[in-house]
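=== RUN LOG ===
request id: a7f3
mode: sequence -> structure
chains: 1
length: 544
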Amino acid sequence: MKHNKGILKKTTVVDFKQDAAFFLDRGTRFLNRYDYEKALRSFRRAIELEPTNAECHCHLASALAETGQFEASNDVLYEVIEKWDTSMTEVYFYMANNYANLEDYQMAEEMAIRYLQEDGNGPYREEAEELLDYIYFELDMPPRHFLPSDKEDVFSKHERARRSLEEGRFLEALDILKEIVEADPSFLPAWNNLSLAYYYVGDFQNAMKTIEKTLELEQGNLHALCNLAVLLSHHNQAAELITLMDMLKKVVPFHPENTYKLATTMGVLGQHDEAYFHYQRMLRAGRPNEACTYHYAAISAYLSGRKDQALRWWQKAKQMDPEAGIADQYIQMVKNEQEGETIKPIPYQYNPPQRNVSWEQASFTGVEDFKTDPMIRASLLWALQHGRDEVKFAVLQTLSLIGDDEAEQAVRQFYHATDDPQLQKLALLALADMGAAMPEHLPKQTAPEETTGESVEESIRRYLLESGQASAGNWCLQVWREHGEYASGQVQVRKAVAWVAALEYVYGAVTHDKKSQAHLAEKYGISVSTVAKCVKVLTTLDFK
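=== RESULT ===
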């Protein structure tokens, strides 16, 4: 091959700028071509480049809605309006459409009204009004008046409360819902969710009062009647429950959300034939449904003896949510039963069959489940109200291990509510383990032992170096000097020895001479949960 030895011509390199605008344009083009996977990838890349750009988030929300992921779309939109650009009022209209597609017409109405209140002459005014017309007239729902401007935040507050309920932050939901019903006593959805919040925290007396208040405002409110049936069942008030159940069995709701509520209530109360009837009506209507709806319908079919139909609906749930793996386990459960295996009762929950959600049997590795599983949250709060003293003791320890704001609030409320000095002391110890502030007017004799003021380094010298554990002491000193500021910023503990115990635990793990957290907690005179919290922080560090 001949080489050109002539003059080398200088070329110009044009910088190909791939900024957020580039990926937004690219994502839009993919969206127009119905290539949703590449569109989503492009919009997510734009967000990576400009995470505070509200427009990037809105494009992602639009693409998610196009693919039928309406809940995920709304999650993004809530973040936009709450975090990135509070002036972007069109977000409320987008959310209204998403809720309409989810058949949550109540929330669709609220968001459409919110949009019109925020921007009465906005670009989507006509579309918002058409959506409201559809809700009010086509679905035969009575229109609700526009709230005055000082109550305009009731919709976003109510949605925040609903999300708190779904995620197990029941005390937080209680506070928000109380504010809403005080500001707008006619707002029935908040009353219904308030009764549920009271129920989840074990305050059955206020749950009943709230239901009665709701029924005073609207005598035939189906959500309130369903909540009442569950509460009567819990209290074993058979005569009242039978009368109410006879009435509910005659109800055939038109609106999908009411049908779903009634179907689920019937299932929870063991009326599986009635639950099956209503789920079947929903699924035959031809509207889009989520995987969990097919799952609940399958449970109602299975428990009412329609096992072939149950398998068909679980197959549908599997198609819609293959990554969850839940439907697969129920399908296998049916096969196991056909081979002679005894199957335990199935609750109406979108969880793997026979999944253990008991907080009493969970290990330290399950703390994340404590934080995120609403069922465990509800059982903890219920046990703190109604359990035996030894159960309350265990719950207080568990809440100190969770250590988030919700757990702290529950312990603080329990401290003020109980008149048992021993339980008060345990509550204070739990607060101390969390690094939380002590309650005001604290009785001096019940306060946890005050810290000596000794630093972590001084404690390492005293407990390790001066006791002949030179290798461990030197290692712990070096780690604390490098990472102590980071570690103490992640979790607050009142006693320096908590960090020494955690450091000694990690040192044992690194040198294959591991001691148990319980042993170290006893050695340093602190709780196992405190050691565990500090260990959790330290194990995120790189000791190589």
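=== NOTES ===
The two ends are 53 Å apart (CA to CA).
DSSP finds 28 helices and no strands in the chain.
=== END ===
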